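agent> fetching stored inputs for the iron/sulfur cluster docking request
agent> found them:
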Amino acid sequence: MELRQKLEILADAAKYDASCASSGTEKRDSQGGGLGSTEGMGICHAYAPDGRCISLLKVLLTNACIYDCAYCINRATSNVPRARFTVRELVDLTLDFYRRNYIEGLFLSSGIIRSPDYTMERLVDVARILREEHGFRGYIHLKTIPDASPELLAEAGRHADRLSINVELPQEGALKALAPEKDLGEIRRAMGRMRLRIEEAKEARRAERRAPAPRFAPAGQSTQMIIGADASDDRAVLGTTANLYGSYGLKRVYFSAYSPIPDASRLLPPQPPPLVREHRLYQADWLLRFYGFSLDEIMAGGEGGMLDLGIDPKLAWALRHRGDFPVDVNRAPRERLLRVPGLGAKTVDRLLAARRHHAIRSDDLARLRLPLAKLLPFLVTADHRPRVTDRLDLRALVAPRTGFGRPRGQPMQLALL
Ligand code: SF4
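agent> prediction call returned; pasting tokens
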């Protein structure tokens, strides 16, 4: 099979993995030798129309797999064309794409060939050859196989910026039913080992300022959960997410809406979940991590353990807690401002800095290009005090009626607010 054909098959097979963002690693460049950079100008992130990042060469070593996970297009019983790169082919392809500035790095995953160790050895070989033989200093994200030996996982971490192990499904029962060869206990043990090594490497780097300390996945570890392949509700998804962040120090938990696959098992739903569900889960994830919300606060009021798909979870919370509003932008502490719909954490910090010099007015908010329609019913400024916080139709007034934004041609009447 020609290389181009292999690439078509193996890049297409990799698109179902959402956990490819290249954030959070150390800064490196090729000054003093080597090739590539993790921070170069002209190397851009690009996103496919479905929102998935494609700025890395995102590819599988092979889409042939001895496992038979029901939700996966690459499962053993799937009737799809198979392909497999050799280690050398993949190394050459990465270098070629990098030199042409198509990519800023490599995201490499694989179906299980023969055994977890056999597969992991080849994934590690790709990363090792890139780093040691070619001085490649670009970003490498290796998807790791939990059942592979700890020594192989340790070597993977020496070469990769980020490692990830997919937890796959929010609940153990669903994993047993849909991916019987996978073992949640083993997945979690592998995550625990990686956490330990990542923290040891960080600690060593802090302690040994002079001698370079051993490197281990400086961009940390992440995981992915498939949403909508099983009956788990949003509360279960977010509960597992919070537990994963707390227990394994993950950088990110990615959500990937289940895409129906040909000849799918009857255990799987015929329809994908609405894509907006993925979006709402990401918003809730941020509220948990950066905005001081608890899981119960986010989920209270949601029907059947699900988030409201019509509005973002912070706005949903604010509409249920109108007594806590309006909040005065010139006086309120940071934690209260973080709860105002339409104010992000960075904006809050900018407002806190600005109000040391002058009283914040509505014009200042407009200059920051904030969503005033959403914001002003909940916020007091030097020249604005909302009159609508108690209105029964407040949700209709502030919430978009279609999609993620206000319908075109219907400007918000700010005077009303
Ligand atoms: S092990 Fe990975 S590639 Fe193989 S069937 Fe399961 S999810 Fe798919």
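agent> quick read of the result: The longest strand covers residues 221-227.
agent> awaiting further instructions
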